[in-house]
Specification:
With 113 residues, the chain is mainly beta. Helices cover 9% and strands 44% of the residues.
Length: 113
């Protein structure tokens, strides 16, 4: 069984701290800088991690438009928070408790294929 878990943290550091509790913080990249892992395991069950928008950011239309020379385009604004999706591959009852960071969007901006 797999389920997508949608998470919204105050910022990148809060997300890192939460994942560190479940055995998956950041790892060192080739240049030594911290990088997010693409997967982890909790209680013997795998999960995949996807930072929304590659940097945890979601943008939505404001309702305004701007002229780009190629025609009007919507003005976008960031949605507050640092957004992470987790594809949980285990029993629903064993999904890690992310507390208030877990959100239940009616129309998710990013999902696993």
């Amino acid at each position: 069984m797999s389920e997508t878990v949608f998470l919204r943290f105050a910022d990148r550091e809060a997300a890192r701290a939460a994942f560190a509790l479940y055995g998956s913080g950041t790892v060192a990249g080739p240049d030594g800088a911290p990088r997010w892992p693409s997967c982890g395991a909790y209680q013997g069950h795998r999960y995949d991690i996807a930072l929304v928008g590659a940097d945890g950011a979601i943008f939505r239309p404001t309702g305004a438009t701007t002229d780009t020379g190629s025609g009007p385009e919507p003005v976008m604004a960031p949605v507050a928070g640092f957004h992470v999706n987790v594809l949980w591959r285990g029993p629903e009852g064993l999904i890690p408790d992310f507390g208030a960071a877990r959100v239940f969007p009616q129309t998710p901006d990013c999902v696993f294929a």
